[in-house]
Amino acid sequence: MSILDSKIPAGHISEKWTDHKNHLKLVAPNNRPKIDVIVVGTGLAGASAAASLGEMGYNVKAFCFQDSPRRAHSIAAQGGINAAKNYQNDGDSVYRLFYDTIKGGDYRAREANVHRLAEVSGNIIDQCVAQGVPFAREYGGLLDNRSFGGTQVQRTFYAAGQTGQQLLLGAYSSLSRQIGLGRVKMYHRHEMLDLVTVDGKARGIIARNLVTGELERHAAHAVIIASGGYGNVYFLSTNAMGSNVSAAWKAHKKGALFANPCFVQIHPTCIPVHGTNQAKLTLMSESLRNSGRIWVPMKKEDAEAIREGRLKPTQIAEEDRDYFLERRYPAFGNLVPRDVASRAAKERCDAGFGIEANDTNEGVYLDFSTEIKSKGKQAAYALGDHNPTEEKTIELGKKWIEEKYGNLFQMYQKITDDNPYETPMKIYPAVHYTMGGVWVDYNLQSTIKGCFVAGEANFSDHGANRLGASALMQGLADGYFVLPYTVSDYLADEIRTGKISTDTPEFEAAENDVKNSIEKFLSNKGTKSVDFFHKRLGLIMWNKVGMGRNEQGLKEAIEEIGSLRDDFYQNVFVPGDSNEMNPELEKAMRVADLIELGQLMAIDALNRDESCGGHFREEFQDSEGETLRNDEKFKHVAAWEYKGMDIKNSVMHKEELNYEFIKIAERNYK
Amino acid sequence: MATKFININLKIWRQKNANAKGSLESYKLDKVSTDSSFLEMLDQLNEQLINEQKESIAFDHDCREGICGMCSLYINGRAHGPDTGTTTCQLHMRKFNDGDTIYVEPWRSRAFPIIKDLVVDRSAFDRIQQAGGFVSVNTSGRTMDANAIPIPKADADKAFEAAACIGCGACVATCKNGSALLFVGAKVSQYALLPQGKVEAQERVVNMVRQMDEEGFGNCTNTGACEIECPKGISLENIARMNREFLFAAAKSE
Questions:
Q1: Average pLDDT in the A441-452 region?
Q2: Was domain A505-630 assigned CATH 1.20.58.100?
Q3: A55-68 pLDDT, tens digit each
């Protein structure tokens, strides 16, 4: 029998969560202050969990590596958050959100979890409005919505292009309130460097104070890991510079299985790479695909002329433009899911139609001119001008665009020095989100008892591809509406445990391990920077475990990452001391984990002989370049067990996915 | 916007830790792409230092998209550098010329003590927020429907503009008095403009201002430098609104 018990409750899909909640064990209010809970990470999932558990009366310790919990990378999410409110009367429902998410994930997510997510989505919006989150509103004072990829309804709530910021500041304000009341103790500029387990249960962490360099032991009755995703394994991604896999990876090495590591989301609309010193890539929100049309020139010679600066995109006639998403996917057009849009852009660029004048010619246009004209005309009509001049129309259209996407347009202009109101944006896919993560059961508990994993750090809700505006939804669903129930259920058996001591052999051993790895880095006689190795890892990952993968490339990647790892430990140079703030040391510790993870991703990708969602194996595609899933052999979650230093020895366990309520079908957006 | 490469000289504040004495050190950096961001330029300098087996320069940064508020830096005497409406991570080297000497210092303010090199401690902002920057609503699946209270679009938009503050501290660093009024004013305004925040409005403003004073921030003398240097364009209006809220609360409490 599989060691994986997903603990999906019995019953009809729409009753499972309610029924499950009604039967979970509770901890009485008088017992909660005697129980300690650690939360690692203060993004949407971590901050909302820490605040909620603090409100309930538990003793919470929250950790973040940034200088304030408000900096977590959820803050950078732009476009919006989905909820099945059906405020727009376009036929939305909990079932449709559930269905769209399962289909969007290419039938590789767990039905019960996704349905729960859809069920609580409406509560999230209610909660956030009650906290004072200033969502965009219509003139009547009610909440506004827009569309995102992979859906045919308007269910996305937003705050300009800064939705993640507003939601995170909402969660941060709740967390701040609990810190002020003394129910949450905040450890900022602290990084978790190991998970401590005692008798198979998570009992605490080893954290490094990033200001003093001191190693600290923190004990708890349960540990929640909400440390985000691992997109930085590619070096260049839309993640923050500090985003890393270490907290999740340490849990993995202590026994938590790691699921579907190869499921990575490459986001179609990012600003193309400009040069070798580039440190990160910047996303242009998917919401722009509501108003922008994606195209490349129809003729290769036009693309070439553009790259050489002889032609401007505005000089290409309408009939010489290839709106390739509208052409290939008329039903969803520019709003196909991210994986589909990314692959289509890559296909055009590989065929020689790319427009960016960089090393790889990789770039396509995102053009707002049609929308500017149409919204400008609407605005003129609203002002009573039924025969506006073209000039007036364009002026009003630009104003409309500015109100909707002003901050994004400004950001684009700052970075590229191009004015997107006048000329189309240049965009190309970039690594954005990781669907894979620590395996968790229905209660979000990993295979280590008492170690819960939430938000992007777990694997559970997005299958092989995440739909836009669903990451914020999942983070807050986990933190506000799932963990408070399921963690309490676990803690109900801990009320007699008493205070957990850090003065035990397990804590001692974990601290020594961390101390040794720090010393090893600092005493190494290398010559190359951590970034040097990180960039090499990134190139291997992008070229061989990126948007298009094949057997040979993956086999090469596994070997290359193995030798990179040896090279890293031999030749890395980490300056400074352990007893001070040392950013290079922090990076070295993180990159060490990313290298191991990278190898596991390649192994997982090689193992999955099918194409699904963001995982595109070139051997498995139809004549039109669409993904070919293999449900017979791969309708499962691949959860990997750590088996020591050599990642190649990792053992895979399967969790079969059962679709009881949705008929599994070909994923068609045509 | 063709890419160019420039050579620059840098004078950067180095300070081993909070108690050590710091000084400006000189560096020379060649072949900096004008498409690089200011922080990518610092990455390049750090790479050069490490290749010379020297210690890299510590600076705060994270999202590099101008939204997390972690990056800071006083560049040539201006918070976040010579461009307006931008954070240091979104400042690009095309704003500088070949042969320029660029001065890079940490935020300078009593309430933001230096931790190392260019890194300062801004946790005072967190403590102000903890004193009252919230609506006291617990997590529950049973709050009222999000559309139960319509909010005039103009109010919602203004609340959003105030809430767009990224908490970077440029306002404090640039103020000759080291005042945090723009930061506190923005937070107070966000809630004052929304019906959800009105219930606790008086307590909130009193508690946040009390904490602000305890943290050692200076007073406001209406210079307006904060508004000019704010990367998110937070308006001085928010300070006026906060003052009104505070006066009202003070009058009511007597």
A1: 98
A2: yes
A3: 999 999 999 999 99
